[in-house]
Amino acid sequence: MEGITNLRSLGGYRNKNQQVIKDGLIYRSGQLDQLTPAQTQYLATTLGITRIVDMRSADERHQFPDATWPHVQYHVLDVLAQVMTNDASLQSMISSTGAVHDRMVQLYEQLALDPTARQSYCQFIRLLLVPDQPLLFHCFAGKDRTGVGAALFLKILGISDEQIMADYLLTNQARAAANQQILATMASQLSDEQQRAVNQALLVDADYLSHYFEVIKARYDTFSNYLQTGLGLTSAECQQLRELYLTK
């Protein structure tokens, strides 16, 4: 079976207390718009995924609707709904001008501070507070909105910054074939400069996620303050997340 783009489990990471994230409960991926019947069966039956969290915009969902299956719960969390320019969408990657690196750094600042983004990530963590119901979350590429969601989840569970960054950067390997396909499909429509910009926009960079956490530090001082004041999560909810997803 052909692999599903950027699909991977967040299980298996070990925190400083030697607790390990349980496997088979939480997965991240790119969008699910072109699943084959075999891929759908794999998600539904082999992985037993009962819930999908879609972090894309209304336009993205309309243009590339997710494939779903019977009895799966589908949740929409439009992380960038109130942001003027959604630089995480493919259309924006194609049409935007200016330095890609600078735009992406600004995007991660919005992911940290924008009120709708903060509310969406709070809802995302709360959706995880359900025992034994495997969940898959994604955006378009599974790299920015999804990358931040994964980083939040891992950091709440006490996973080291080094492991969080390593998981984040895995996207560049996991999306290599899909990115080349996108570029090949659009080659005739784009100038060389546009192709280089889209190629860069399809990648993650350590600077982006580092800036996300730097912004949190500057605005909220500590990650705990960000969780409680910025996202509105309680300490009890964060503890419940740890109890549900970490081995004893």
Structural class: alpha/beta
CATH topological fold name: Protein-Tyrosine Phosphatase, Chain A
**Count of the domains:** 1
**For the record, what CATH class applies?**
Alpha Beta
Sheet of most strands: 5 strands, mixed
EC number: 3.1.3.48
Family: Belongs to the protein-tyrosine phosphatase family.
Enzyme class: hydrolase
Pfam families: Y_phosphatase3
Descriptive key words:
Tyr/Ser_Pase_IphP-type, Protein-tyrosine phosphatase, alpha/beta, 248 residues, 5-stranded mixed beta sheet, protein tyrosine phosphatase activity, EC 3.1.3.48, Prot-tyrosine_phosphatase-like, 5 strands, 12 helices, Protein-Tyrosine Phosphatase, Chain A
Quick synopsis:
The chain is α/β, with parallel strands linked by helices. The protein has helices at about 35-45, 60-65, 90-95, 100-115, 115-125, 145-155, 160-175, 175-185, 190-200, 205-220, 225-230, 235-245; strands spanning about 10, 25-30, 50-55, 75, 135-140. The radius of gyration is 17 Å and the shape is globular.
Structure report:
The protein is an alpha/beta fold. The chain has one domain (8-245): Protein-Tyrosine Phosphatase, Chain A. The protein has helices spanning 37-46, 58-63, 90-95, 100-113, 115-127, 145-156, 161-174, 176-186, 192-201, 206-220, 223-230, 235-245; strands spanning 8-9, 26-29, 51-54, 73-76, 135-138. The protein has a five-stranded mixed sheet with strand order 1-2-5-3-4, with helices on one face. It starts with 7 loop residues before the first strand and ends with a helix. Keywords: Hydrolase. Belongs to the protein-tyrosine phosphatase family.
